[in-house]
Amino acid sequence: MTAFPAGTILGYPRIGRRRELKRAVEAHWSGALDEAGLESVAADLRRTTRARLAELGLGRDDSSIPETFSFYDQVLDVAAAVGALPERFAHLRAEDGSVPLSALFAAARGVGEAAPLEMTKWFDTNYHYLVPEIGPDTRFALSSDRFARQVAEAVAGGYVTRPVLVGPVTFLALAKGTDAAAPGARPLDRLDDLLPVYVELLAALRAAGAHWVQIDEPALVSQSLGYSDGELATAAARALEVLTASGDRPEILVAAGYGALSEPAWRALAASAAEGLAIDLTRGGVPSPVAGLDDKVIVAGVVDGRNVWRGDLAGAADVLDAVGGLGAAAVAVGTSTSLQHVPHDLADEPDLDPRLVSWLAFADQKVSQVTTLARGLADGRDAIAGELDAATAALADRSSAPGVRDGAVRARAGALTPADRSRTPFEVRAAAQDAVLGLPALPTTTIGSFPQTAEIRRARARATRGEIDQAIYEGFLRDEIARVIALQEDIGLDVLVHGEPERNDMVQYFAENLDGFAVTRNGWVQSYGSRATRPSILWGDVSRPAPITVPWAAYAQSLSDAPVKGMLTGPVTILAWSFVRDDQPLGETADQVALALRDEIADLERAGIAIVQVDEPALRELLPLRTADQPAYLDWSVGSFRLATAGAADETQIHTHLCYSEFGVVIDAIAALDADVTSIEAARSRGEVISEVAASGFAHGIGPGVYDIHSPRVPSVDEVSSLLERAVAELDVRRLWVNPDCGLKTRGYDETVASLRHIVAAARAVRAEVGAGV
């Protein structure tokens, strides 16, 4: 076995310290940067990443630096490499059958009448991947040399790096079956057809200079993909049997992050001929000793790749000692997952309080933690005693710092009763709301945000820098709100929104206005494709010092006789899209956020707002991967939403919004939220969720999305009408709403206005078909 380094990471942020890749990709899409220019930017980013990781202590020539670059998504990259793009994109292949970059982007974003691949969340994170479509006619063939070219590029630069692939079991387990004639057929059934292509790919990586390859198989920790533990373990055993049988390959490190391996999967991996296993030890204990480890290296994932807390290094060292007792040939220090889920570097955050900084670790600091612990493994714990003591002292300081615990917040939460989470029956509320609102059948609305133009971003930046005073900036925002209200009236929407021009992000905006949060300047994390967010840091007890959204909502409502929705982000999403304190149960933190939102809803009601939307797009994201852990999560997550909204009057219509997740898994929880209206993603999946909703007996208001806002395509009136007709056929038209899949912040105005006009036209046509008497 080729020696494995004493410390490594499973992946690193790939968008660039200042989102260089985002800007280059979007410039390419707009026609401002050709493909050669885009490739040049990408190569520079890869070179910079390798140099930075070597500077932080990972070896240049020992495979400790992973190659995890992607232009868009790691699952899409494998789909392109194995030729598994849908037939509707076949015309975009090169003459030799390979998949060029243009075809990859088309699959991600759609082109012409060809809809893009569906998007959903990556395990229980807020990163979203593109879902492969695998059917009986999918022809697997090696169709891209991009992985091998990146390895060769590294070798030319003086590095021996470790390429990272989504493994064949996870790739198929995450895929969507397309065999309408055989609904029981599953993508994982195609494993033996796919494995020869992986064998070819591994040979190409070895020829390019790779000594090790990392095969990511996080599906082996999950029970949420429709396959049993036993099925996944058997598939992994089969895959490794085939892959390791080839003599023309790098050595294989199988990485299974995002949770603890199931017992069958752990035994299958140990019994395989793979040379290394990387396991997540931050979300599960050290596994039991099993046969087969004596010829393997175990990469112990003791540094959390998903949060930003400095962590307990002494405790991590204890875990490493326990892993040493498993009888493996060697133990290495690693991260629990890729570091793509955290920002680059704390040194880029001059605005954060130094005391808070001492409690934190971003990607670069986590790399340093790995190298520190690796040195401790090699030289003994005394060699790193200073670093261990410093981390322990930071933990102690954090626990006693002002604001971490607030007596008034805790007293209010401690006095809650079940009545604080309950409203009157839905039927009573619906009648009261119908009388107040007087909306037509199939009412039209949007999810909340309107396009954030360059002008809006410039004005916000100037106000932040102090170049314009607050009065001028607020005047600009009022003008923007008035313009958006007038535009919606002209389009003919029934329920309006103010467009959210004052908000930089749907979570950060609230974090900036709630106690217990800090926000970053450069803490960008990839959400999907070219999109990145700056998760806020929830470090202390949460409270609302003053109303947040009320002035803007009230002003918008003063401009129109149509109802204008108040727009809030729900407690679960605020937690999911923030880096949350890890020193108390999530449910306790969620209730603190919910109480702040409850106060905001009360103030919106007093200001004359009749509809309040409390968005929970991340409800599904935090669902635990193991079935046994899900009921407790659903209990506190649903409870926190109900705590936020249950104080509303019967006449106040509470909306919520969920997007880009498999809803069937949580449909009962969605009903338990007891929102009056729920809008959900449906356009990209061509309305598949409608049948799930209908089968569940969901009786509240429902708005299946009819416009996929993650694609630049403008849906035709016929396309929207078709989705609406499907919804009308399966759902109660009296409770059916018409809306886009998600907010419009990332779209341009031309496509937005055209799409919304088509939505209104389709709604009116279908409304006429079903009759005005419904």
From TrEMBL:
* UniProt GO molecular function: 5-methyltetrahydropteroyltriglutamate-homocysteine S-methyltransferase activity; zinc ion binding
What biological-process GO terms show up in the record? methionine biosynthetic process; methylation
Residues annotated for 5-methyltetrahydropteroyltri-L-glutamate binding in this entry: K22, N126, W577
Note on cofactor: Binds 2 Zn(2+) ions per subunit.
Question: What UniProt keywords are attached to this protein's entry?
Answer: Amino-acid biosynthesis, Metal-binding, Methionine biosynthesis, Methyltransferase, Repeat, Transferase, Zinc
Its required cofactor(s), as named, are: Zn(2+)
Active-site feature positions: H710 (proton donor)
Which biological pathway?
Amino-acid biosynthesis; L-methionine biosynthesis via de novo pathway; L-methionine from L-homocysteine (MetE route): step 1/1
Cobalamin-independent methionine synthase MetE N-terminal domain location is 8-323
Chain sites annotated for binding L-homocysteine = I447, G448, S449, D615
Q: Where are the transmembrane segments?
A: none
Question: What are the binding positions for Zn(2+) in this chain?
Answer: H657, C659, E681, C742
Provide the binding site for L-methionine. Answer: I447, G448, S449, E500, D615
Q: Which residues are in the Cobalamin-independent methionine synthase MetE C-terminal/archaeal domain?
A: 442-764
* E.C. designation(s): 2.1.1.14
| Keyword Chaperone tagged | no
Main role? Catalyzes the transfer of a methyl group from 5-methyltetrahydrofolate to homocysteine resulting in methionine formation.
Q: Read off the NCBIfam families from this record.
A: met_syn_B12ind, PRK05222.1
Give the family this protein belongs to, as stated in its UniProt record: Belongs to the vitamin-B12 independent methionine synthase family.
Q: What is this protein called?
A: 5-methyltetrahydropteroyltriglutamate--homocysteine S-methyltransferase
